[in-house]
Please model this.
Amino acid sequence: MEDRFPISKFTPEQTYMLADGIAETLAIGKNTKSLRDSEELASLNQTVGKLYSGLDLQPPAIYILDSPMACAFAWSHTPQTTAARWRVFNDEFYTHPLSSPIVDVISDGYNAFTRLVQLNISTSIRPELYNPIHQQYSDFNRVGNLIEQAIVSLERPMQNTSLVESFRKQVNAYISNSAIRDSVSRQPVPPLDSLFLPGVIFRGQQFTDTAYFKAMGDLGVPFHGYHKNLINLWQQISKACNWWFPYKHVLILSDRASALHTDERGRPHNSKGPAIEFRDGWKLYAWKGITIPADIVENPQTITAKRIMDENNTEVRRAMIDIFGIDRFIIESDSASLDKQGEYELLEVPYIGGNMIALKMRCPTTSAVYVHTVHPDCTNVEQALAWKRGEDDFVNARPYREGLLWEK
Model:
């Protein structure tokens, strides 16, 4: 009997199943229902109980803050070493709810499980089949990547009075344990250069490796029974927990975003406002998965060709050009004229990573200006017109004549 592994071709049924899995994962990642909803909270308690029982621990007290940023303040505000926790908690050390982080235990277990599952996939399916699928799931992580970037790039966070005040208000509003509230208020503000975050498994918001593992299992990859159980558990946690920060007796986690806008590839993107917004007002602006300044979206009239060219970040510059309009940018930028014949002008335009060649035409009837990018080897109007007509030998284009159009 022919061995079915490694899989070298997908059946139509498997192809449809993979597409359905991608769609389902994207829908889960865009869920903005609050974790404080009674049904969501019940699911959360059940899922967390399974995880902690697997670690031979009692279910923790669960406290939900409004955003990953608030959770990052909580995590960073908690002393990270045994000695530091002793200095803060004193005689409460052995009983304080935050005294025993189990984040390393969970991370190590997840990483070991991940290595075994990935090995199983690599021996069961041809790389040319599973690599594109894994990339699709990885693209969904752009939301989480953007949030993580915003958190860890915040400089001197404890000097940001608005965020610190929001964090303290949420601790008092949502954490009923007086020992935690007292420890937050009495310990000195840590002189942090940046905030801490636990490992990637705790970074919710479309963390989709577990969804990818589930898709591989559905294809028939022969996972062991306990691997299947772990995949299901981690998938439930990814759905239920969003950003989560575990301790031995306490689980602090972020509520889901109140608004989340993405493009067709699942990247955070919004042309009219914040791409991601949380219930405490913390928000992020993004264009096709790239963090951008708020005023580019809120006040696009502030964008000029000069501002675009002065922007050092190439990704932000590309977003600004998209918003500003490539035609307008070509017309208003400091372009060099390479050739001009009749109503046509060939321009060399300063662009991202080098120069771009564009053909500009002014309609003699309406005076409207049209701009089209052309092949970078074009050096005169004749060549640009020939290339636009689709001629292969555009370099040896016939001489220009008045009224010649680029269309075939």
Remarks:
- Residues 303 and 324 are 7 Å apart (CA to CA).
- Residues 12-256 form one domain.
